[in-house]
Specification:
The protein is of the alpha+beta class and 237 residues long. The protein has one domain (13-231). Helix content is 38%, strand content 24%.
């Protein structure tokens, strides 16, 4: 009696397994670079937001310190406040080093300005109109002496205009900060041009503060030449 030998095992499962292995390798090659770029983007986004928050805090804390100065102060007092900026915004120093500079002020421009309000008609006693003039300014680009424009309360921050709601007796202190951010990882700009462009956009923040201890803070010229300053004798008195 003849017996029929069992059929040879099919090679189909082995072929299928080989195909699956090739698909997995292809998926890995496609997905991993995307995940890496995503992780880099998340890292840069977090650093960008952290730096932006530091600039906001720099303006707020600088303004608070300046507003607490006594009525009779000096340029040196304001310069010391200005010099505290890298302690509040350490990312500015890191960005400066990345750009090859040892000075944080090369990337973070911070200016502190006092604006005095005077009556347009000196004898006015009620419902008076006021004009705003620079009394003093200390920082990277100190404001020039002279009259400033009146702006709407919701207008964008400007170094040459004062919100209308601040006009009245006394003075106000302006703190203006701007920083040119640069991505920590240059590969982000290479892989994601749109994100790289967004991250190199300058950050600008400004705030207004009223003196707490006096109607107007008057500065004496005692101080160094760094950062530069402007004293306007017409209203700094």
């Amino acid at each position: 009696m003849r017996t029929t030998p069992p059929p040879a095992p099919s090679s189909l499962p082995r072929t299928f397994a080989a195909d699956r292995g090739g698909s997995a390798a292809l998926e890995f090659a496609v997905v991993v670079p995307l995940l890496l770029v995503l992780l880099l983007g998340m890292f840069e986004a977090s650093k960008y937001l952290q730096t932006d928050n530091q600039i906001v805090q720099t303006v707020a804390m600088t303004g608070q310190m300046a507003s607490q100065l006594p009525a009779k102060s000096s340029v040196e007092d304001v310069q010391r406040i200005w010099g505290a900026a890298p302690l509040i915004a350490p990312e500015a120093a890191a960005i400066a080093r990345k750009k090859g500079s040892a000075a944080w002020s090369s990337v973070l421009a911070l200016t502190i300005t006092s604006v005095a309000f005077t009556k347009t008609v000196a004898s006015c006693t009620a419902s008076c109109d006021y004009e705003a003039k620079v009394a003093w300014s200390v920082g990277a680009s100190p404001a020039a002496c002279g009259k400033l424009q009146k702006a709407a309360n919701d207008a964008a921050p400007s170094r040459t205009a004062v919100p209308a709601q601040l006009y009245g007796e006394g003075s106000a202190i302006s703190v203006f900060a701007s920083l040119s951010y640069e991505p920590r990882l240059s590969s982000v700009a290479a892989f994601l041009p749109g994100m790289g462009t967004a991250f190199t956009t300058g950050m600008t923040e400004a705030g207004w503060f009223q003196p707490r201890n006096t109607a107007q803070i008057v500065l004496s010229a005692s101080g160094s030449g760094s950062p530069p300053f402007t004293l306007c004798s017409e209203v700094n008195k």
